[in-house]
Amino acid sequence: MSNKELILVIWSLIGSLSETNHPQFKGIASKKRGELLLILQQIKDIHNGIDNSEMERWFERKTDSNKFKYKDA
After folding, report:
1. Gap between the Cα atoms of 50 and 43, Å rounded
2. Alpha carbon distances (Å) from 63 to 49, 53, 55, 70, 71
3. Residue 14: which residues within 8 A CB-CB, separation 6 or more?
4. Helix 3-14 and helix 33-47: axis angle, to 10°?
5. Per-residue pLDDT reduced to its tens digit, 51-70
6. CA nearest to 11, candidates 31, 32, 30, 26
């Protein structure tokens, strides 16, 4: 898939996101292929209900809650 095709797919998917998610995907026409693939994955995650910030907060809660479970003897 060419960069132009990736950009078209991304633009079509961005249109289906809530408007609060639109600003984070500005300037995609100037992105390199690797960045476009990452953006496509981010959009996929948003569609699947997994926001990276939500995942990071979940991970922080899990690691913070286990912080003091294992004490040195």
Report:
1. 9
2. 22, 15, 12, 12, 14
3. 21, 22, 25, 43
4. 30
5. 556 656 656 666 665 555 54
6. 26
Contacts of 17 (CB under 8 A, 6+ apart): 43, 46, 47
pLDDT value at residue 35: 92
Q: Does 33 score more than 90 pLDDT?
A: yes
Selection from 53, 15, 11 nearest residue 36 by Cα: 11
Query: What is the model's pLDDT at position 57?
Result: 63
Q: Are 9 and 42 in contact (CB under 8 A)?
A: no
How does DSSP classify residue 70?
Answer: S
